[in-house]
Amino acid sequence: MRKLMLLASVTLLALLPSLTAFAQDTKRVPALREQVYSQLARAQELADAGDVDAGLAALKNVESKLSSMNSYERAMLWNFYGYMYYGKDRIGEAITYFAKVVDEDPIPEALQQNTLFSLAQLSMGQGEYQHALTYLDRWQAIVGDENASKADVLRAQALYQKGDYQQALAPIKRAIAAAEAKGEVGDENWYVLQRALHYELEQPEQIAAILERMIKHFNKPEYWVQLAGVYGQLGQEKQQLAMLEAAYQQGFLEKGQDFQMLVQSYFFAGIPFKAGQVMEYALAQEILPADLRNLKLLAQSWIAARETDKAVDALERAAALSDDGELDAQRAQVLLNAERYSQAIVAAQQALKKGNLDKPGTMHLVIGMAELEQENYNPALQAFARAKAFEDARKAAAQWERFAASEKQQAERMKELVSS
Length: 420
Known about the structure:
Order of helices and strands: HHHHHHHHHHHHHHHHHHHHHHH
Strand content: under 5%
Number of strands: 0
Structural class: mainly alpha
Shape: rod-shaped
CATH class of the domain at 1-147: Mainly Alpha
Largest sheet: none
CATH topology of the domain at 1-147: Serine Threonine Protein Phosphatase 5, Tetratricopeptide repeat
Radius of gyration: 39 Å
Distance between the termini: 115 Å
Helix content: over 70%
Oligomer: single chain
């Protein structure tokens, strides 16, 4: 037979030995007579031996004498029915019979309390959340507010499932506070539930606060990453970066999106070298795909960090995946700034060949400037002349053309002076 896992079900398993105690805990409760007791005990023996159907048949025999039974005896009969149907995994029927237990009056208070709590738990398992709350209210009316913390988690869960998020906060907070007041830590799922409630209520500050406690108590990788994400939502970029960096150092970052968030945090915090390092690691370990988006972010990081070789390599890899020449154009600019003129010319020519550039005239300017720096005046002048054909570069091209022409004339005069 299936073992009973709910809290109140333990009472069912230990039922027969405690019958006398039940009878004594409330005044004016009629006695459980020996004849009924023995028949119920026989039914339980059959069920515990694995023959639940025989146990149910024995209970049917007891039920045939229902008119002669008192309220306590009837309650115990319904309790045994509920116990056996629960054992057969027929929860709906178990609930029906346990409900009949608490409808009997008078019965021992302990039996009433235990059964009401079992009904609340079973109703939760069946998705009958309002019924669970009703049974909890009836239970609390008996035990009083002092013992309400026993039901706080169950009440919060039921309210959460009903969508009553604001009402669910108070009981789960009480449960956690009660545990922490004793120097203990509540069950992890309690904190998860409180976090979920704040999420549903769109309360990022409170989400951050509960996640901070979850990290302290349970130190799970996902909580570090979640807290970093919440800090980002709150605009607390420094805290976000600190959290992500600490998680990375502890080996807590596992998903590609976590690494991407760290890279972006480093980049926007003005630490591009670390952004590049982390992105390169993530790509090398295949944590992130070497796609166009990630390679562009890698290139931007190395450009900002003034790591020319790494930037050029990343731009070249990214350009191979692009349908336009923009990344080759960016590579040409990086190479020009690094005074690698021959390579800048090649990259600019590749950008123009691939086409679909936002500012094609700029590439002719790059070629002209690179040629000019190498004192190749005629190719430079030709490039500036081509650049003048584009609106985006016309003004700058004219200025560079005049400068190049002047430099050419000066070079020619110097050559004539030397030769004479």
